[in-house]
Amino acid sequence: MSTARTENPMILGLSNQNGQLRGPVKPAGAPGGGGGGPQQQLLLNQVKGTINNGNSQSAPTTNAVIKPGDDWKKNLKLPPKDTRMRTSDVTATKGNEFEDYCLKRELLMGIFEMGWEKPSPIQEESIPIALSGRDILARAKNGTGKSGAYLIPLLERIDLKRDCVQAVVIVPTRELALQVSQICIQVSKRMGGVKVMATTGGTNLRDDILRLDETVHVIIATPGRILDLIKKGVAKVNQVQMIVLDEADKLLSQDFMAMMEEILGFLSKQRQILLYSATFPISVQKFMNAYLSKPYEINLMEELTLKGVTQYYAYVTERQKVHCLNTLFSRLQINQSIIFCNSSQRVELLAKKISQLGYSCFYIHAKMRQEHRNRVFHDFRNGLCRNLVCTDLFTRGIDIQAVNVVINFDFPKLGETYLHRIGRSGRFGHLGLAINLITYDDRFNLKGIEEQLGTEIKPIPGIIDKSLYVAEFHSESGEELKP
Which compartments is it annotated to reside in (predicted)? Predict the structure, then answer.
């Protein structure tokens, strides 16, 4: 059996709307605990982090005094080595090392203590150009290290002697803002005083105003909130030297374009703009022509889907979907799974069904209260539940490396949506599984998305080879994953 289950699942929290439908979670490897062996338990330990409710400050510094001539690498507190096999999405590098970029020693220490051993292809291409101050337009697959590609040069260029906001990272969702701020805090923890602040809609504006009365060097924000703070004169961005748009295709869509243009109007003309995304529609090209100065273009998208994600479809009727999902739970070796629905209402209905079947389940969607969304994101990321049902709120940049299975309970209509959904598994060159429940009405969308993305979604076999998606069946071998 693949997932923790109980005969009497209970709802935790203040109300039924907090997104956590669950029962006692059995230990990984125990009967009913998902068959997770020591490799997967190690993985869960590796991805545990802390997410707070918006205002992030620098992590406590752990600097030891390093004298000239000392071997500073002896002072590193490295996480357990990740021995999972990785695909060429992240291994096809030029052989550069992080030390080749002349970064501050304290920043290098934070990088290595994150478990980042060598730059990925997008980091190799991006870091030296960003350090030179040039604008960048970068396309790379989901899960290949884009956050590190811009956070490393951003932190290298922070001047701690200047008491002002020097860099802004804008992301489309609150969860992604919290995630990026945590990465930024962890990478900079040895630097002795970099102040990082996350600010998003749905949180107390007064708290943000009080926070900005103190020193802040880096702001990571959603567009509406940072624009509000700028207009109120609270967030002073006139000395910002770098602005990053992560998931730029979404930020430059019709939903956000006017806000982004207004935000840029408050910045210095000498600011550096970095755009990162997996897909770049025509709106991005127009924005680039209007606001970027001779941008360096990076395109690592020879193919759109991650090499490590195996894609299957199961042809079902609408009434058979829950039964099919129950069968998948019982047969797959799930470490953690994300299950996508096309509406908030269907998310809650499916989460209730899953809990009635006896499986622990969280759910998250945009109509929930922000504190409940934060709690669900935090607890799922920390491995407290194996299954998360969600809308497309959770498709943008969310990096939970323990996720090895993504299920499209409702098949999306757009290839871009499909690409971002399945990119939640197979992160950073590892292996994952994407299973799509296809009804008669979905058949043309399935064909269209295959053609648009240049990929093949195969019929689901009776038995799925565990070596395609279970970490403990692989060790680091340097071999390319065979199709």
Answer: Cytoplasm, P-body
Q: Cβ neighbours of residue 224 under 8 Å, at least 6 residues apart?
A: 201, 259
Taking a C-beta distance cutoff of 8 angstroms, is the pair 298, 423 a contact?
Answer: no
Verify that 82 and 225 share a domain, yes or no: yes
Q: Which residues pair with 196 in a beta bridge?
A: 218
Mark whether 221 and 368 lie in a shared domain.
no
pLDDT digits (tens, 9 = 90+) for 290-306: 899 889 988 876 655 56
Nearest to 389, CA basis, from 413, 359, 428, 427 = 359
**Is residue 5 domain-resident?**
no
Rounded Cα–Cα distance for residues 48 and 218 (Å): 23
Residue pair 217/202 in contact by the 8 Å Cβ criterion: no
C-alpha–C-alpha distance, residues 196 and 186, integer Å? 10
φ, ψ dihedrals at 353, nearest 5°? -60, -45
pLDDT, one tens digit per residue, over 228-283 is 999 999 999 999 999 999 988 889 888 899 999 999 999 998 899 999 987 777 77
Measured between alpha carbons, how far is 135 from 383 in angstroms, rounded to an integer? 38
Is 122:274 a contact under the CB 8 Å cutoff?
Answer: no
Of 279, 299, 319, the residue that ends a domain is 299
- Claim to verify: residue 103 and residue 31 sit in the same structural domain: no
In a shared domain, residues 88 and 182: yes
Alpha helices in 401-454 (DSSP H): 415-422, 443-453
- 378, HSE (Cβ side, Cα atoms, 13 Å): 14
Does some domain include residue 480?
Answer: no
Chain centroid to Cα 419, Å, comes to 14
CATH number at residue 441: 3.40.50.300
Give the single-character DSSP code of 7: S
Indicate if 294 and 319 belong to the same structural domain.
Answer: no
Backbone φ and ψ of 9, nearest 5°: -65, 145
